[in-house]
Amino acid sequence: MITASLTLRTFTKTKIRMVSGIKEKRSSESLTEKAARAGWGTLNDWFTNEGFQSFSYKNGWLTNNDEISVMFTQDLGVDLGGTWGNSDTRLKDLGISGAGKLVPNFSPDVYTYDLILPNDKANVVLKPTAMNKNYLVKTFLNLYNNDGSFYKRPETIGVKAGDVLYIGCGDRSWPSMNKQGAEARYYTGTKYTIRVQTAGVGSIESRIKELPEAKRITVNNCEKYADRVIALHNQYEALSTDEKAKISEANRKTLKEVYEKVKFFSDIVKVKNALATLPNGATATDDAVRSAKSDIEKADNAYKALSTEQKKSISL
To answer: SS3 of 54, please?
Structure first.
């Protein structure tokens, strides 16, 4: 694969003046053979729906600090992260730099998050990566799909408690190679919501009110809530005695019950997952068992740490 990365910094003219950082991974193919597959390029990690000649500073597509990558594909873009072959508009990853912690940790199938700030304000940079880079990704502050609220992938975003960040991928109103020409296919966009919060008493209390009832948490859905609940519990425990007293007794009770239920089932799930990776005792060879000795011991210790009630959910 041949890759050239560009960062656009000044726009007295719209011509690219320099290409730097060209790297080639050698293969047995000649350059002529590679060229038959054509060069591909991304603008801010998106495979554009038209040739680069259609994207310029003059027509508003290019702005300061845009990132362009020019690449050769070995498999019509699939090896580079883009394809006509699916309608998957989820995000693959979400990088965040700057102050704040994302809760829960990012997962493609979780669509609502809290960004917990150490103070009321912070600067953050979001780097979302599409599961399929043929679908455009956009980030907005407070108003979804609004040009005035739009931030490009490399841009710094100033946020404060109460703000909401939205990340969309593959919205049908946005351009994509996957909705034009013979390769057009049906798809719907995916939207992720990130609520900006602080770790203060008011924020903690408002998030407790959003928790599910403890009786609704089961072994099958506990992982959906685990990161959020555990993070909220830890933030509550970090409060002083006086600060804890400011949270209503009913909300303290709710947090305690939900946390204990999530912890109860999460421990079971962890042991089940550990056991599932071990060699099958009926068919495993001696070598396989010896190789898995460390994992077997860890799973055994985790099982022994369960309560009698928790062990009832484990089949050995």
So the answer is: helix
